[in-house]
């Protein structure tokens, strides 16, 4: 039978059918943790007074701008400081959980509304939101008199996101899904740039007088990926000056920190405000931090922000399964899959030390249905077949899915150029931050693949002990004994 399964090196984050939807929205609600444009000459120690003289001049100017705009004062709960990550927000006094850290008025937000109100708004109205905001960012950065000049000056020129890695650095990701995803992202961004260059930039030299390069476009893309908020009411993409300096803490387990409220935006004005609150209590001199996204994998964190976590459940691998068009029952299987919220291709994120996704086995059994099991595809079973697939259908069906998944795992594991043991040995060394990310990613993926393989290996060993559809059906009809023997009724 034709192999109906695919174990794709591309994650759900960038599967061919999902790429444009995911990136056109750019709905990421977190910020960048590593401000690489800042040289850390001294770290702020918890409990010590915040000395702004240690801050780079551009950060001091940015803070003064916020004071002039009435956004902050000398008594602000937190202010920028040099921290281990680069720049962060440090509490100036003890803060209770859920206490307001800062409030930024909408007039200072950078979002599609700001683009629409600008002098490039008319030519950007038909662009994807993130593309229009990217062009706006680049153009404002090139203008000496931009209203956001002081904010733009504190933004990093690059991060440790894998979209900025060199070919040599990317080679350390050989075999990983992150490598495939990164290359696809870079291709996507390049294609968007070429399109916008031809349709918007070149025909409108009067409003884009300075050359805009692909590197500029990647810079803006990276800023939006790492710093944009998206969970505010009616806001799918918004940069919030000052708020985006806040760093990530893996120990914080709630994402409830951002609010949109109505309030004073100055001495004599009212506006919509972005309100940032600390999700945990913070001592004076300690860094105020939030949880960027509790559901992101390490690959997502590396791509978006340029860091990974040591938590085991941040390691994930995406199984891509599909119903083969050459399958003689393709139409029936597709109809059943679509009736249950899936499709011709389905993506299942397998997380280390967690159970398999609930519908994964059902989809696997559906794709593998054939031969004597094909009767379940008949129309009379159409409303009940998905329920039947929650349990093993037949020994042949269950054996096939075990075999195919295990073979796919072995194939994927063979693509890496190191072993788990070699990666673990490297982790004990003082690594460059990007190599540290690469080692952690490939080790994590391999651990998940081994876990998948062990899961289906154990299932193979139980095939003779499982109860299959025909046995369950006979029991329901009272024609099968407790030991699985078929009961024959003889006429008296």
From TrEMBL:
Task: Please report the organism this UniProt entry assigns to the protein.
Answer: Carpinus fangiana
The EC number of this protein is 2.1.1.259
Q: Which PROSITE patterns match?
A: SAM_MT127, SET
Q: Which Gene3D superfamilies match?
A: Rubisco LSMT, substrate-binding domain (3.90.1420.10), set domain protein methyltransferase, domain 1 (3.90.1410.10)
Q: Which PANTHER family match?
A: [FRUCTOSE-BISPHOSPHATE ALDOLASE]-LYSINE N-METHYLTRANSFERASE, CHLOROPLASTIC (PTHR13271:SF113), UNCHARACTERIZED PUTATIVE METHYLTRANSFERASE (PTHR13271)
Highest taxon listed in the record's lineage? Eukaryota
Q: Give the coiled coil ranges.
A: none
Q: Does the keyword Magnesium apply?
A: no
Q: Where is the SET domain?
A: 69-293
Q: Tell me the enzyme class.
A: transferase
Pfam families, sorted: Rubis-subs-bind
**Which keywords label this protein?**
Chloroplast, Methyltransferase, Plastid, S-adenosyl-L-methionine, Transferase, Transit peptide
InterPro entries the UniProt entry points to: Rubisco_LSMT_MeTrfase_plant, Rubisco_LSMT_subst-bd, Rubisco_LSMT_subst-bd_sf, SET_dom, SET_dom_sf, SET_RBCMT, SETD3_SETD6_MTase
Per its record, how is this protein called by name? [fructose-bisphosphate aldolase]-lysine N-methyltransferase
Indicate the family of this protein.
Belongs to the class V-like SAM-binding methyltransferase superfamily. Plant protein-lysine LSMT methyltransferase family.
Q: Which residues hold substrate?
A: 227, 231, 244, 259, 292, 305
């Amino acid at each position: 039978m034709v192999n109906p399964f695919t174990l794709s090196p591309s994650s759900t984050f960038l599967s061919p059918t999902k790429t444009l939807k995911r990136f056109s929205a750019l709905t990421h609600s977190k910020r960048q943790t590593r401000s690489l444009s800042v040289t850390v000459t001294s770290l702020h120690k918890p409990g010590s007074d915040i000395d702004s003289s240690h801050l780079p001049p551009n950060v001091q100017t940015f803070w003064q701008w916020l004071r002039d705009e009435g956004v902050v004062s000398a008594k602000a709960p937190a202010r920028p400081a040099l921290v281990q990550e680069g720049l962060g927000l440090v509490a100036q006094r003890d803060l209770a959980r859920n206490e307001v850290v800062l409030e930024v008025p909408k007039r200072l937000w950078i979002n599609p509304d700001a683009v629409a109100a600008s002098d490039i708004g008319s030519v950007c109205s038909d662009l994807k939101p993130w593309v229009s905001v990217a062009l706006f960012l680049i153009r404002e950065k090139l203008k000496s008199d931009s209203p956001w000049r002081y904010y733009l000056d504190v933004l990093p020129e690059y991060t440790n996101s894998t979209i900025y890695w060199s070919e040599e650095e990317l080679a350390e990701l050989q075999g990983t899904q992150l490598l495939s995803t990164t290359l696809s992202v870079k291709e996507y961004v390049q294609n968007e740039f070429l399109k916008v260059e031809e349709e918007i930039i070149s025909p409108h030299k009067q409003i884009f007088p300075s050359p805009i390069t692909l590197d500029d476009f990647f810079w803006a893309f990276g800023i939006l990926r790492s710093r944009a908020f998206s969970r505010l009411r009616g806001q799918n993409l918004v940069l919030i000056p000052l708020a985006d300096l806040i760093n990530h803490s893996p120990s914080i387990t709630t994402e409830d920190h951002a609010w949109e409220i109505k309030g004073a935006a100055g001495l004599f004005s009212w506006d919509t405000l972005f309100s940032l609150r600390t999700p945990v209590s913070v001592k004076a001199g300690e860094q105020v931090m939030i949880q960027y996204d509790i559901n992101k994998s390490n690959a997502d964190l590396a791509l978006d922000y340029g860091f990974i976590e040591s938590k085991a459940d941040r390691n994930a691998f995406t199984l891509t399964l599909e119903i083969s068009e050459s399958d003689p029952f393709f139409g029936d299987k597709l109809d059943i899959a679509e009736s249950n919220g899936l499709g011709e291709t389905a993506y299942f994120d397998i997380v280390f030390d967690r159970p398999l996704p609930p519908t994964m086995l059902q989809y696997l059994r559906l794709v593998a249905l054939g031969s004597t099991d094909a009767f379940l595809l008949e129309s009379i079973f159409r409303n009940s077949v998905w329920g039947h697939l929650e349990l093993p259908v037949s020994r042949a069906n269950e054996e096939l899915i075990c075999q195919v998944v295990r073979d796919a795992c072995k194939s994927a594991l063979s693509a890496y150029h190191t072993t788990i043991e070699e990666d673990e040995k490297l982790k004990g060394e003082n690594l460059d931050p990007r190599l540290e990310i690469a080692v952690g990613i490939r080790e994590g993926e391999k651990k998940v693949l081994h876990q998948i393989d062990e899961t289906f290996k154990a299932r193979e060993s139980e095939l003779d002990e499982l109860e299959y559809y025909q046995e369950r059906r006979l029991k329901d009809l009272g024609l099968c004994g407790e030991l699985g023997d078929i009961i024959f009724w003889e006429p008296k």
